[in-house]
Write a structure and sequence with these properties.
Layout (H helix, E strand, L loop, with lengths): L15 H6 L7 H17 L5 H13 L1 H4 L4 E10 L2 E10 L5 E7 L2 E8 L4 E7 L8 E11 L2 E11 L1
Length: 160
């Protein structure tokens, strides 16, 4: 939908997406959310959007983190009992198209698995040395090179 009151990069007036994507590519998800927020604020100031519409756009941009991630990783964490000891098992599958270094971190230890090829999984079972543990979160940090630049994605995987 073309709008007025905001400087145009084209001849038919800019759309919201025209102005957001003029800032792409985004180095981080937070940079994307900031750009959406700033652009939506300008649209509110110009009288094109309401504050509620701006808030809805910013909420959607913030929620789009997984869909916009350059690095594609599926992470899971679960507890498992072996004899009298509880373990936290963490796995991260590289669902993207480039090799990744994947770091698996819990309150009970961490492990970095280099060169995880597309379609492959990094896995570690961490010994908690306890009979039971409270629910928690494992953190998976994936690092790869995109267009020759290092890119990192962080994913949290809850376990009960």
């Amino acid at each position: 939908m073309p709008v007025t009151g905001i400087p145009s990069p084209g001849t038919d007036g800019p759309t919201f997406l025209d102005l957001v994507w003029d800032h792409a590519p985004f180095a981080t998800h937070q940079q994307f959310v900031t750009t959406v927020t700033d652009t939506a604020t300008a649209f509110v100031t110009a009288g094109v959007f309401t504050a509620a519409e701006k808030n809805a756009l910013v909420t959607a941009a913030d929620a789009a983190k997984d869909e916009l991630a350059t690095l594609k990783v599926q992470a899971t964490a679960k507890t498992q009992k072996i004899a009298t000891t509880t373990y936290v098992a963490v796995s991260a599958r590289n669902t993207g198209s480039i090799p990744l270094s994947i770091e698996l971190t819990t309150a009970y230890g961490s492990r970095t698995v280099p060169d995880v090829e597309p379609g492959q999984t990094a896995y570690q079972s961490f010994n908690t040395r306890a009979a039971s543990i409270p629910p928690g979160t494992a953190t998976v940090k994936a690092t790869g090179a995109v267009d020759g630049q290092p890119v990192t994605a962080t994913i949290d995987a809850a376990y009960s």
